[in-house]
Amino acid sequence: MAEIKLRIFRFDPENPKPVPHYQTYTIETNPGMTVLGALFDVLDNQDGTLSFRYSCRWAICGSCAVSLNGKCRLACETQVSDYKGTLTIEPLPGFDVIKDLVVDIEPFFENYMKIKPYLMSQASPEKENIQMQEQVNLMQPHVRCILCAVCESSCPVSWTSREKYVGPMAFTKVYRFNRDSRDSGGKERLAIVGDESGVWRCRTIFRCTEYCPKDIPITEAIEFLKRRYFRD
Ligand code: SF4
Ligand code: FES
Question: How does DSSP classify residue 94?
Answer without folding.
Answer: T
